[in-house]
Structure formats: C-alpha cells, structure tokens
C-alpha cells in the first residue's frame, strides 16, 4: 500500500443518511443466508458508529452473521434469532419506564405526607428514593445499551460492507463561479471497489473536497469505502470515521479476498 496514493478526506460526507439507511435495514427481519455466506474466517470491519462483539472497536467476523442464531446475552442459555429480544430483555427494557414512574409516585406521596405532618423523615425518604432511582435507572440503561450493542455487532456485518475504492475516472468541477473562486469543489468519481468479501464492482459517487485536496486526486488514488450489501453499486460512500488500524484491516482483507 503506497500511502502517497491514498486519497484526501472529503469536506463533507453523508454519514447521517448512510447510518439512517443502515438502521432501516437493521430494523427488518433478518433473512436466511446461504451456508457459505455464514462461514467465519475472513476479516471484516463493522460500520462506523457501531461496535462488534469480537473486538471492542469495529472489527468483526466475516460472513452474513445476521442469519446466525445468537445466544441470549442475558445469560439464560436460550438461543434466539438475531435481533429478537428475550423475555428477560423485554423486562429489563421495561424497567427504564417503570423506575421513573414508581419513583415519581413515591416522591409525590411522600411530599403530600410531609405537607400534612411536617415531619422531616419524609424529606429524607424523598432524597433516598431519588438517589436509588437514579442509580438503578443508570444501571439498567447501561445494560440495555450493552445488550443493544451486542445485537448490532451480530447484525451489522451482514448489512454494511467495506472495501478499498480505486479511482478509475475523475472529473473535478471548476472552482470558478459567479462569486469568484470557491474554496471547495465537487469531484465526480468512478471507483473500482475491491471489497473485503464478495466480487469487485464499479460505483459512481460525488464528493466535496477542499480546493487544495482536490488537486491531489488522480486516477489510481485509493482509500477505504463503505456500502450497503443490499445494493453495493449505488450506496458506496467514502469511509472517514475509522482510525488507521482499522483502515489497514480493510486493506489486508480486500487484498486477501
């Protein structure tokens, strides 16, 4: 990998739009995948903004893990379909609403009793209830986030793919407009994508670059990209949120594919 040929990062990227599309697909019921797609062994990198179970930062096992039954993270030993919450998970999630409601009820009743009796004991009870409710709610919230993260790590590699994009055709718009010279320009890129899994494909995308960075773009420049596995040719975007170590993982996996 020649670091001099890695393309510069664009000024803007459609991270929110891409993440929204990922969440929409994650919300769908996972479909069964062929057995060969569920084979584990090829490295893959999870999408930005999400974590993987096999590594704390975006590194994930290969294959379409969305169709593989996952063991219940709550520890019951049950095997459930990926993304389907167990009874214990539903009860835990319900506590996020139940704890504030019960706490509010106790605080209101205690305040009414204090108004009648003017006994400081009721104020002490209110303080204790508020502290316990806050600690309990935060603990349940953290467990819920950890559980959701594990579910995402199972589903995400089957939704988001990564690869190395190589510029095959390049068309940079003129920086001159009616207002003078613009600080940014739009580059129309035709990429040959070598994914970490599956066959290579061609994709077209537009990216906004600073004028100085746009001058560094050449045919043959390359860098990490991400895409939706459901429609790779039309969903490719330049990956800008991974650190150098995970970018190197993408390059190694694409070279071994």
Describe the 3D structure.
The protein has 257 residues and is an alpha+beta fold. It contains five helices and eleven strands. The chain has helices at 15-26, 87-117, 120-155, 211-214, 244-256; strands at 43-45, 59-61, 70-71, 79-80, 160-172, 176-177, 180-181, 184-195, 201-210, 222-228, 237-238. The strands form four sheets. It has a five-stranded antiparallel β-sheet. A two-stranded antiparallel ribbon has the order 1-2. A two-stranded antiparallel sheet has the order 3-4. β3 (70-71) and β4 (79-80) form a beta hairpin. α2 (87-117) packs antiparallel against α3 (120-155). The chain is elongated and about 80 Å long. The model is unreliable at 32-43 and 46-79 (pLDDT under 50).
Name its key features.
single chain, 257 residues, alpha+beta, 5-stranded antiparallel beta sheet, two-stranded antiparallel ribbon, 37% helix
Quick gist of this model?
This protein has 257 residues and is an alpha+beta fold. It has five helices and eleven strands; from the N terminus they run αββββααβββββαββα. It has helices at 15-26, 87-117, 120-155, 211-214, 244-256, and strands at residues 43-45, 59-61, 70-71, 79-80, 160-172, 176-177, 180-181, 184-195, 201-210, 222-228, 237-238.
């Amino acid at each position: 990998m020649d670091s001099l040929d890695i393309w510069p990062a664009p000024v803007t990227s459609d991270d929110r739009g891409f993440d929204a599309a990922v969440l929409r697909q994650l919300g769908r019921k996972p479909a069964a995948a062929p057995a060969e797609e569920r084979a584990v062994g090829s490295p893959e990198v999870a999408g930005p903004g999400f974590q993987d179970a096999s590594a704390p930062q975006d590194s994930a096992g290969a294959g379409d893990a969305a169709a593989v039954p996952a063991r219940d993270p709550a520890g019951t030993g049950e095997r459930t379909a990926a993304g389907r919450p167990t009874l214990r998970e539903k009860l835990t999630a319900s506590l996020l609403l139940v704890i504030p409601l019960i706490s509010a009820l106790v605080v209101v009743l205690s305040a009414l009793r204090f108004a009648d009796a003017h006994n400081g004991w009721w104020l002490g009870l209110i303080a204790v209830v508020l502290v316990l409710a806050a600690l309990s709610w935060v603990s349940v919230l953290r467990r819920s986030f950890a559980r959701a993260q594990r579910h995402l790590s199972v589903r995400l590699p089957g939704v988001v793919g990564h690869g190395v994009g190589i510029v095959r055709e390049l068309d940079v718009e003129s920086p001159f407009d009616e207002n003078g010279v613009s600080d940014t320009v739009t580059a129309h890129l035709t990429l040959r994508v070598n994914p970490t899994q599956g066959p290579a494909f061609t994709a077209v995308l537009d990216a906004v670059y600073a004028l100085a960075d746009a001058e560094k773009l050449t045919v043959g420049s390359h860098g990490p990209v991400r895409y939706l596995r459901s429609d790779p040719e039309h969903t490719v975007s330049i990956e800008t949120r991974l650190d150098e170590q995970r970018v190197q993982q993408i390059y190694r996996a694409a070279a071994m594919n």
